[in-house]
Amino acid sequence: xxxxxKEKDDDTSAKERPTLKTLAFMTGLGVTTVSRAxxxxxxxxxxxxxxxxxxxxxxxxxxxxxxxxxxxxKTNVISLVLNTEHELMSFVSDIIYGxxxxxxxxxxxxxxxxxxxxxxxxxxxxxLVETGSADGVIISRTQPNDPRARYMLERGIxxxxxxxxxxxxxxxxxxxxxxxxxxxxxxxxxxxxxxxxALVTPPVGLTYYDHTVNGFAxxxxxxxxxxxxxxxxxxxxxxxxxRMRTAQLMRREDRPDGIVSSAAAATLAVVAxxxxxxxxxxxxxxxxxxxxxxxxxxxxxxxxxxxESFRLAGSELARAVLGWIGGMDPxxxxxxxxxxxxxxxxx
Amino acid sequence: xxxxxKEKDDDTSAKERPTLKTLAFMTGLGVTTVSRAxxxxxxxxxxxxxxxxxxxxxxxxxxxxxxxxxxxxKTNVISLVLNTEHELMSFVSDIIYGxxxxxxxxxxxxxxxxxxxxxxxxxxxxxLVETGSADGVIISRTQPNDPRARYMLERGIxxxxxxxxxxxxxxxxxxxxxxxxxxxxxxxxxxxxxxxxALVTPPVGLTYYDHTVNGFAxxxxxxxxxxxxxxxxxxxxxxxxxRMRTAQLMRREDRPDGIVSSAAAATLAVVAxxxxxxxxxxxxxxxxxxxxxxxxxxxxxxxxxxxESFRLAGSELARAVLGWIGGMDPxxxxxxxxxxxxxxxxx
DNA sequence: TCAATATACTGAAACGTTACAGATTGCCAA
DNA sequence: TTGGCAATCTGTAACGTTTCAGTATATTGA
Lengths: 347, 347
Description:
By secondary structure, the first copy, chain A, is α/β, with parallel strands linked by helices. Chain A has three domains: about 1-60, 434 Repressor (Amino-terminal Domain) (Orthogonal Bundle); about 75-175 and about 310-335, Response regulator (Rossmann fold, 3-Layer(aba) Sandwich); about 180-305, Response regulator (Rossmann fold, 3-Layer(aba) Sandwich), CATH 3.40.50. Chain A has helices spanning about 20-25, 30-40, 45-60, 65-70, 90-105, 120-130, 145-155, 180-190, 205-225, 240-250, 265-275, 295-300, 310-325, and strands at about 75-85, 110-115, 135-140, 160, 175, 195-200, 225, 260, 285-290, 305, 335. In chain A, helix 6 (about 120-130) runs parallel beside helix 7. The relative contact order of chain A is 0.11. Chains A and B meet through helix 4, helix 5, strand 2 and helix 11 of A and helix 4, helix 5, strand 2 and helix 11 of B. Strand 2 of chain A pairs antiparallel with strand 2 of chain B, so a sheet runs across the interface. Chain A binds a DNA duplex through helix 2 and helix 4.
């Protein structure tokens, strides 16, 4: 439509974005040669290579993504698959920042692929794979037997999971050691003389639910404390639900004197529930919570916190996917982040 | 490499992803006809059109993005440009969810393009435009005279800004009415008898800083209250800085008895600072804060809040960009969200 | 000297799509 | 009967890239 020149070789009109053809014309070489020179192919003369790369840099040549993608199938895209309802708030931004940090000096773009509660979590993954929309995928809310991981493994598409699976299949992951977290939390509370502990769990069904629950249980028997069951909520529940049920729990005769919470937002609600029941944090009950931002300290100074960095998770996950795409052994791309310890106010 | 058939037309081997050629083969039509039939071109017979579309649906045909993009230049991508350091935390996830909500049933993908403190904010935008990586762009942290908006307007690439500009140029935007927010907050505090008010401002230089400050000032003179200057912080400062400087402020003789805060995270720090100074919220000072999640209520029941939905902002921004891409008048794609009113605890 | 071989480069084809410029058919007016 | 003209359909080229199968030139071994 808006092309001016009718000559086959209109590269002299300098306004359009430079392509290989432009470079070929400028250097007097063939398109093939230019292409290979740019990617350091061995059969290109050293001087030619330098010359081409110099010119390319000078005129700001950038390979056309669509061209590459069409020809090679390589999208230079990695996709972060997110649940638009359940994912904790700040979680998402941090993980995204972590990912972008890593892919910043690569040709990769990050696309966010959402799915909602009503959908099968496999849907977005299937979409990505079937349409070949990404070279690598990052998923969260990982389950012990995760159909998404299984699916991608079958299709041979590189991915990394936030959280581990337990299927006897090997794939890259990053996980926070929630077993250790729950254990440390329990030991900390026990060290303060707390004996009857309750746990605000991760969402049932996710792998780190198991880890957390196990860490909690093992440490309980280790320190000889007992569990006050609190199975009616998880951190996936709404603020109001958590608050109400905590209040109910705390009004009971056999209420806990120590609580471990798996997420900051839930902790806010739990504390509100405690206070609704007329009890006081630090006196009637102590609470150790995981948090991902440094804000919980400000909320109640009596809170104890363990920090989990989602930014780190994002970086690690991105590194893992890129590594797999780059041909590394998936088994070597697994990482576990250890809790730094329980911090009191003004740690 | 892994292609089996050597015949030119290997579409009979059903395993590969279907293309127009596959459809052409199956229907016995030409590729061109199929292409046009799928997009309801007028010169295709009604029955043929239906037939092609039926077959396409049956075998799950999906146009190859790279093919379309290479041929037409249309990327079917919209980019959200984010500052990886300053953007408030939950802000980002909500805005992303809002955007994905709108583009869910379109062919669009969302890519997140980050930039860091050290970079010129124009960099990522320039990159997107120069490489033609997106059909539309969403930016935030909008300034009255915003070089990014000017740049994209010049280049003719559709975009929407979160927040307004003030350059006499018309473009789509979505904004929260921060003038109204600050005004309502002031009136609310004045209604409670507060007379010496301080403002925790948005980042200096952004448009909504001006709006907020103006709304604050106008309402102050309207109700006859006075301002206690608090220019040493904005919501871009760290939690620690805000906390310390609030404590300093509150220890002064002429401390404010009412505070308006532009963001939830800052509010947490401000409250901590107030309490560091030995004062009590609700007694010595009242505070009205904007928040985007419903969590501030839980923090201190004495807080007053005004809700701003970033999810809504995301949706509106996406709608605006898509509208502009679709040929709508940019001037008609501007929206302003009105604060719902000041809510006390248990509103 | 000749062939064999290494070195440095090149054109053509293909990835999947759309736009352009036809091509084929049937029907109608003259 | 013929020319004209809709109504449908089609082949070719092009977008920018990489791969395949070369070609041309210089270098080597005998």
